[in-house]
């Protein structure tokens, strides 16, 4: 092949296509589809990805620029992943480079680096002063002017290095910018560009013997007395011969010697100091207790047998596993993975970030040991890179991770499992705005792999597709497990009407029933989980004299009070300011903090139950690395009576002594401008209720609500998923929302509101006009018809973020029409007509968040 088609890492619309480059003869053996390469683009060097290869005739190759460099010995992307990226760019209306970059760890997102070497005129400079290009270090060029002396120092510095980065040169000669420019113009120095990764492989210095142990013992006898410290090091290395090479840092720390002592031994030829590559293992030093397969119940066995048959046949099929909390879905995952591994294939397990607890990791590491790679955002960039390499180099056969683990670089993928498939966090909110569920199904289709979508509360889209065999997204096989694996009943749920509590004079955030249930658990030494779906101390700050509310100056959103730092924060743009003591508008002292946050609940618990031990678990207490694991470990070891938190306490936790779950305010999400509000509320209440009574001790759930008559709360309290689905589908069908159609959310933003209003209207009119021309535009009332409808433009629920006003249009469509292509085409035309105005357009296909 002579021509490589390359997607360049220049994320603008005009470059969202393959560019042709010639392949130099020296690189032909190394370049494949999926290779990462350095290519000239304009007057710079950029990173790119080879997406196809072609044979070229002499004429067709004239004028093509050659590829400069192959950046990896093994292509980081397989042809299958390159094809998947192309599919994602079409499905989600994003650029191909965004899809390709999403598949790689941050460490491989390389950028061009300026490199300096000696130019052709450097030899003329050397000849002119008669030095032959070598300058003794002891001579400081007294015969030259300051500028000439600086030039020669720079020339010698570069000559010795061979090639240096501009950053290195600037660090060594911080005041020589003009001199360097002058030397480049004269050709004394030459500049080129190369791609440098953000991070490389980790290497450490190690120490080893240069001879066998017997020879070393003989050499030890001849050590002079004055080299006592060196002899001590040499003796230590002989004693540790079976463990060599040893890290140099470890030798220095154990023996308390200097690096110079060890270096002296190397100079005498007794030892050698080298470098070895080491993996950054996020779980190094952790022992995972090995686990064996558990006997399956009849329900589990039936489900397992059905999935195992597909895995054995190595065919593509999608299963929707609907099992109540505690039904034993994880054990089915583990045994299906083993079935897949027995065939020499690999498996990916997707878990919501919030559910990727140490407990979850322990279950997979305990079953499959070092063959498990873990990928999630709480790892450092270096750890994520090394876990990715572990997969690519065949050292792992199972990848457990959050959304992006769907791109794990396996070569023989046989099974993809998505736990808690209903979770909205599987949808990425930044470009590329992909849904991991749909990407998983597509990738499994490419590989001939099985897919298991597991949940106690499946998304309505997935469940409706399984029941009706609708193919809006895919048509899974429905498998149900309505019983708990251990035979214990689902916990009793009591809903408390907080309006009645208020009527009876109870102004506390705790109802009398929840207060009494907490007291009972404290007396019996049992544990409680309390859920509050909100972080911070209070929701907002208001002046009771004039009505002033503290808002973010960039986002027009109320600020949240945090007591630990005594400041107000915007959870969208990060703006922070001190909490006011007086009203900044009227000067009144009557500033009040309204709402209920986790910090306030923690404080109230301390007042009601002096001495109570509370672990608060929210975004603010789990920012530090390892904090999540540490807090859960403390609760597991019964160092706390109550685990208080936001959504993260509702997912994937299994503690035998938790017998009470309390939900402080069940309706907090019901009034959000989101058609999925009822579904999300039902799912969250069902999930958190499942944390209670999972073992021998019976469980109880107390749900506090101001709207206990809402069907989502009624059905959650009865653990009745099917009844909820029946009521919710009636609601969705009447309003033409998924699963009865698909959505595209188009958000336009600009710093100037009047201009944004005009542009948003233009966008909507153009969509309607083109859809009418294509005979797509019309009502969605007929369920079988191809149709497209448009809502808006209207101000977004968050009308201003980071200084930009926001308006949105909602496209609803059904059938085989290319609504995504239409939305993308009209957006491109509007961006072209409004070029240089600062307009930004975001297209979100199948959105999960409507804010």
Automatic annotation (TrEMBL):
Family to which the UniProt record says this protein belongs: Belongs to the helicase family. PriA subfamily.
Main function: Initiates the restart of stalled replication forks, which reloads the replicative helicase on sites other than the origin of replication. Recognizes and binds to abandoned replication forks and remodels them to uncover a helicase loading site. Promotes assembly of the primosome at these replication forks.
Protein name: Replication restart protein PriA
EC code: 5.6.2.4
Pfam hit, one: Helicase_C
Gene name as annotated: priA
Reactions that this protein is recorded to catalyse: ATP + H2O = ADP + phosphate + H(+); Couples ATP hydrolysis with the unwinding of duplex DNA by translocating in the 3'-5' direction
Broad enzyme group: isomerase
One Gene Ontology cellular component: primosome complex
NCBIfam families hit by this protein: priA (TIGR00595), PRK05580.1-3 (NF004066)
Keywords, alphabetical: ATP-binding, DNA replication, DNA-binding, Helicase, Hydrolase, Isomerase, Metal-binding, Nucleotide-binding, Primosome, Zinc
Subunit description: Component of the replication restart primosome.
Database matches in Gene3D superfamilies: P-loop containing nucleotide triphosphate hydrolases, PriA, 3(prime) DNA-binding domain
UniProt domain Helicase C-terminal: residue ranges: 578-761
PANTHER family, alphabetized: PRIMOSOMAL PROTEIN N (PTHR30580)
GO BP terms in the entry: DNA recombination; DNA replication initiation; DNA replication, synthesis of primer; double-strand break repair
PROSITE patterns: HELICASE_ATP_BIND_1 (PS51192), HELICASE_CTER (PS51194)
Molecular function GO terms recorded: 3'-5' DNA helicase activity; ATP binding; DNA binding; hydrolase activity; zinc ion binding
Cofactor binding, per record: Binds 2 zinc ions per subunit.
Cofactor: Zn(2+)
Keyword Metal-binding (UniProt): yes
Binding locations of Zn(2+) 1: 543, 546, 583, 586
